[in-house]
């Protein structure tokens, strides 16, 4: 890498770290994420993009490096099997189960049974998980290993382009695994019908997930990582259940990430507005709260502005159906009202596959 | 509650009266959901209990003409296989006395048209989780229009990426953020409390 690129990377990394530490950088950093969107833009088949990690990261780099001056990228690479590894679910994969340019999808079926809670307690979460993948999701572990093997090359290729790899790995709480495996409807009934069993299985899974995350942060020298929340969102469950099955587990994962020197990016989809105040319990100036347009980001600023960097939240719908002028106006509002300090601009969740190129460009250019 | 209903059936209580009581219970649950006291987790739990008590009652009521509030043809639109949100809506509507014709997921435009033709519903519900199928939602509604079935039909839409602004784009009547929103909207439209 030449000295100029090295200096550029350092400058961008400092900009992002300043925002995380609640300082006001020279300008608001822009750190987006997009997957199938880049395949569409590059004319790469979605079926190839989502199953071949070499094709995926090269496509992502090609499209994003042409879109303007990014500070960082959230994920450096993509593979569809990642979805099975966190939601323990079967997938519909383009080219195999769907048309080659269709969107991949997660199947909402009961692949995990109530008896699995006992099996987790008997066998330990790690061995149970290994058996679960082998028996019920064959090919997942192998695809995941092949994906992980490409990460060092992918990181280096992004950095060569002067783009910081910000949060390229994904961790989450036991709730998300079980909810995905059981199906949301069954899992919500489990929390009422057999709460003690669910909690015991979660408590058995957590040490494994913490240790796995610790090893990944060390092995890949991560700057940050996603600690994701989807179906754990406040809007779906009562405070009583959320306090018992959700928040304590996030707290423990966040503590481990910080202990290892990584920035936990709370990638929280859906509406978390009710519990924003609870996030004040997480360490100040160390985490990022990344919102998808469903949580009130302005309320988040009001409650957490002095405590936690906020990231987001150009709604995916606006990137698909809106106009560049609309996107620019919304980004400027975010920069002025949620920023300029302690704020990172990004799309909500992920740039959707059918986002308009000019809308994504408008978002990226709006920080200049 | 399941046992209590069983006892009342065994004691020879009027099944219509028992069902009315159970539905009043669901209304209280719905009200608590609207007030922010209950959440989806409680709504689903209550609907599951309703389903369990409804089975023995349904047998008793099979011989009688039961009163249904309305009919909704419901489905996840073409090119989207995400059914969970749609399933919640079906569960909650049924436990509130709405007959639901569930077309499943990845529903062809023409399947919606055929179902509306066959069942003459007052309501159609469409769900999606992908932004890429907004046009499929729009095309489904256009197909209903082309078939001359749009007039007098209330079309409600919902799902993860859906919001108010999509109503106009696809040509629907209303956006429902939650399943309970649909219950409230249906009752309001019918002028029922």
Write the layout of secondary structure elements.
The complex is a heterodimer of chains A (368) and B (193).
Chain A lengths: L2 H18 L15 H7 L3 H4 L3 H13 L6 E2 L8 H6 L3 E2 L12 E2 L8 H9 L1 H12 L3 H21 L3 E2 L4 E3 L1 H9 L1 H10 L1 H26 L3 E6 L9 H7 L1 H13 L3 E6 L19 E4 L5 H8 L4 E6 L1 H6 L2 H14 L5 E5 L9 H9 L3
Parallel strand pairs in A: 1-4, 5-6, 6-7, 7-8, 8-9, 9-10
Antiparallel strand pairs in A: 2-3
Chain B lengths: L1 H9 L4 H20 L5 H22 L8 E7 L7 H11 L3 E5 L6 H11 L3 E5 L6 H13 L7 E5 L5 H7 L3 E2 L3 H12 L3
Parallel strand pairs in B: 1-2, 1-3, 3-4, 4-5
Helix pairs in contact in B: 1-3, 2-3, 4-8, 5-6
Looking at the overall shape, the CATH architecture of the largest domain in chain B is 3-Layer(aba) Sandwich
What is the number of domains of chain A? 1
CATH third-tier fold name of chain A: TIM Barrel
| Overall form of chain A | globular
Q: What gyration radius of chain B follows from the Cα positions, in whole Å?
A: 17 Å
Between the first and last Cα atoms of chain A, what is the distance in angstroms?
Answer: 26 Å
* Major sheet strand order of chain B: 2-1-3-4-5
How many strands, which pairing sense, and closed or not: the largest β-sheet of chain B?
5 strands, parallel
Shape label of chain B: globular
Query: Which sequence of SSEs, written as H and E, runs from N to C of chain A?
Result: HHHHEHEEHHHEEHHHEHHEEHEHHEH
- Rounded mean pLDDT of chain A is 97
Number of helices of chain A: 17
Counting copies of identical and different chains, the oligomeric state is heterodimer
Name the helicity range of chain A.
40-55%
Query: What is the class of the largest domain in chain B in the CATH system?
Result: Alpha Beta
Q: Into which percentage range does the β-strand content of chain A fall?
A: 5-15%
Helix amount of chain B, in percent?
40-55%
